[in-house]
Amino acid sequence: MSRDHAGLAIAEAETYRGAIPQHVAVIMDGNGRWAEARHRPRRFGHRAGVETVRRIVEDASEIGIKHLTLYSFSTENWTRPRAEIAALMALMREYIEADLARLSREDVRIRILGTRDGLSKDVLKMIEKAERETQSNRSFNLNIAFNYGGRNEILRAVQRAIAAGEDMSQISESRFAEFFDTVGQPDPDLVIRTSGEKRVSNFLLWQAAYAEFVFTDVLWPDFNRTHLIAALDEYTGRNRRFGASDATEVA
Q1: Contact 6, 216 (CB under 8 A)
Q2: Which of 71, 109, 145, 151 is most exposed by smallest CB count within 10 Å?
Q3: Which of the 8 DSSP states describes residue 185?
Q4: What is the pLDDT of residues 187-214, one digit of tens each?
Q5: How many CA atoms lie within 13 A of 230 on its CB side?
Q6: What are the percentages of helix, strand and coil residues in the chain, rounded to 5?
Q7: Is residue 228 within 8 Å of residue 54, measured between CB atoms?
Q8: Residue 175: its pLDDT value, please?
Q9: pTM tops 0.85
Q10: Beta-sheet strands, E only, within 12-139
Q11: For this structure, is 239 an active site residue?
Q12: Quick check: 46 and 91 in contact, CB under 8 A?
């Protein structure tokens, strides 16, 4: 997505009238660079990123998207400085504590994707509380990929399938998908990555097999409803063939 497209006036982008994808996933990138550009510590950028999460969750729901997956902390992020990791963990706790009651009232179901290995007891307790208290909600599904890695999820899915007695030499793709963290949800139609990077970074490797990708130079703390709608507009203009040939093409 070009900077000009991403810079559409908010008045022009308030209402999205295109085909609405069921599931949008976002690689939220650029918090650190956003903070550094302002000569502030990286944790300042991460906190600004949480405010963007609040806005985008509301915008996505209003637009009509039913499933939103946000990539917040990867299994590779453990290599970051300890102070930054501590700040990210604290922000996760703060977000759930501050927003859980409101999200539950708004009929939002929260699901935390990823492995629980390495997480502190208080973070685990907060995750379990969020999932338990919203498990009956149906209007909007918010997935937070936290301590998540696509390869790790595939390995865990294999382990779950074996533990369930599945014959891995005979298992179908549809049956195998039931052992993933996103079980019961449609695969993402659209994956957005902010900050100008153009890679998947171990995100939803199985589920995003046929997703459309939109890359924007906008840093995550600056990402807003206008940018989301611009990405949806770009998605609408794509021809999604899922491996089939285009009937309009000349052989």
Answers
A1: yes
A2: 151
A3: S
A4: 999 999 999 999 999 999 999 999 999 9
A5: 24
A6: 45, 15, 40
A7: no
A8: 98
A9: yes
A10: 23-27, 67-74, 108-113
A11: no
A12: yes
Here the tokens at position 4 are 């000009």
Neighbours of 101 (CB within 10 A): 10
At position 64, the amino acid (one-letter code) is: G
List, in sequence order, every residue forming a beta bridge with 140; answer none if it has no partner.
108
Identify the active-site residue in 29, 59, 99, 189. 29
91, 125 in Cβ contact below 8 A?
A: no
> Catalytic residue among 4, 59, 77, 143, which?
77
Straight-line distance from the first to the last Cα atom of the chain, in angstroms, rounded to the nearest whole number: 30
Active site residue 77: yes
Q: Which helix (H) or strand (E) holds 88?
A: helix 82-105
Spell out where the chain has E strands.
23-27, 67-74, 108-113, 140-148, 190-193, 212-215
Nearest to 151 by CA among 117, 193, 114: 114
Measure the CA–CA gap between 118 and 49, rounded to whole angstroms: 23
Pick from 128, 118, 33: nearest CA to 77: 118
| Tokens coding 239 | 């021809």
Angle at 225 between CA 231 and CA 38, to 5 degrees: 100
Rounded-to-integer distance, Cα 92 and Cα 189, Å: 26
Give residue-wise pLDDT tens across range 97-154: 999 999 999 999 999 999 999 999 999 999 999 999 999 999 999 999 999 999 999 9
Planar angle of CA 224, 69, 160, nearest 5 degrees: 170
Residue listed under structure tokens 């390995």: 155
Task: Give residues with Cβ within 8 angstroms of 16, minimum separation 6.
Answer: 63, 64, 229, 232, 233
Four-point Cα dihedral 11, 13, 14, 15, nearest 10: 130
